[in-house]
Amino acid sequence: MASGNGTTGGSSTTDVYNKARHWLLMPSWAILGTFVLAPVCVMLIYSFLTKEFRGGVIWDFSLAAYDQFFFDRGLFGDGDPTLQWTYITIFWRSIWQAGLATVLALLIGFPTAYYIATRPENTRALWVFLITIPYWVNLLIRTVSMKFLLRDEGPLNDLLMSTGLVDDPLRIINTNLAVQLGLFYSYLPFMVLPIYASVERYNFTMSEAAADLYASKWNTLRRIVLPAVKPGVVAGCILVFVPSLGAFLAPDLLGGAKNFMIGSLIEEQFKGNAGNWPFGAAASMILLTLVMSVLLIIARPQRSAGAKI
Amino acid sequence: MNPTTDVKTYSGFRLATIFCMVILYAPLIVVTIYSFNASNSITVWKGLSFRWYVDVFIGPESTKFKQAAFNSFSIAFIAGTLATCIATAAATAIVRGGQYRLRTPSLGLITLPIMVPEIVLAVATLIFFNSIGFTRGYLTILIAHTAFCIPFAYLPIQARMQGIEDSFEHAAMDLYATRSQAFRRILLPLMLPGIISGFLLAFIVSLDDFIITNFVKGAGIETLPTAIFGSVKQGLKPNIMAISTMLLCLSIVMVTISYFISKWDKTK
Predict the structure, then answer these.
(1) At the top level of CATH, which class does the domain B61-267 belong to?
(2) How far is A17 from chain B (nearest CA, A)?
(3) Fewer beta carbons under 10 A from the terminal one: N or C of chain A?
């Protein structure tokens, strides 16, 4: 992440501790190698094993998990394979929901970040602080709060009904909209902060120059400001989209059973004895591949952007 | 009117900012208010009361929550401390270890837990512990938390270390300080704000975690998030709001500490 600008900082390439560097790195390699890297490899292996009925696996190579994900072979497993839409639909819904949450976060987050970055310098830190506080608050608590607020007989509907804006309570909870709102709310600070960092470095004399040349304000924003702060926008979108894609809490607590997303699908495979571990592992591998592709395709040319958050 | 500010300002942006703040804070404020509700129901407001706070500490579910709080805080503290130490060592090697082949892969490995979706990491960790026959419990949670807290501790520490010129350490070594003396007496004190921020972030991230904990905890052990989740699944209850409000205050206190550390650091 930080390697992009690692060489630009004056002191970042010094070698004061070059003799000890391998010793210093050993604890992280030991812990992360054993408890992050190795588990991901074991998960890859598990996705090719045969499921055992009480949860767990039998050590027989099998493509059944991936086959079950993509193909439907009829009730007895001997029919002609047709494309299985159930799981693809769940993945597609997750991408769609995460995408909408990202767009929503961008629509609110960009003006906010821009507004904060154009405040007087001494008040900016306070604004950033205000944006950061919700990020530090437990995500579960924030999601539960959202659930409480959006309920049919919750405070939001009380407010709307007492002001006479609506006659019947809005049914928001257990809909796709609730999930989008929940995801948007969960990761909104991630959108604001990188965009803020980019806008703060933006040289506003360029906007003045554009105005001097009779550009409208909208055109200035679109043709001058936006291209200049694009790395921040891209970083913000990734930071909202990627965690939304695999989110579990917002879909589970706000969406109800009908608005299943990848996170819940995976979780279900490991709950109790009814699950299918190889299938869960395969779904995780597919999600991981999806996320890594997003990161590689979008983040690669933007490496320097990622380094600045 | 000053033409500079005019070019910069977009009239609708202030409205969006206010909207953003309302969205970010409204749910939290509403839950805080309702945690002081005297009523048994979460829907009806019956006046101000501390009864649900009392309920959290001596009510029927208090033993469960106390045990969960103990697990959460002890795990967050131990995992946060371990992750901070490991991250400090790694940052020293990466920022001040010169150019070498393992540098980029190491950086990649350290940031891996942030790149991988949390649910995938949770699945992988569960499968791993299961395949080596490790019984799930307190220790598995602690190990998993230590591992995924490392990048969160690492990033502030690295940022801080990159901001410190190495001339101080060179000066110390010119005056015959050993490398380890230069590290302990020069670099470490200068790094302190970054290390504290790193620890606080790791602590909060560990305290916050639900998904990974839920996968690796095993039966019979709960942390605060898993206990709250279990309770919420059976319906929203006022005592959950009291707990949430307390955790909310704790988070705000911690982020305020970290804010003032960074401020105090800049004025120095």
Answers:
(1) mainly alpha
(2) 5
(3) C
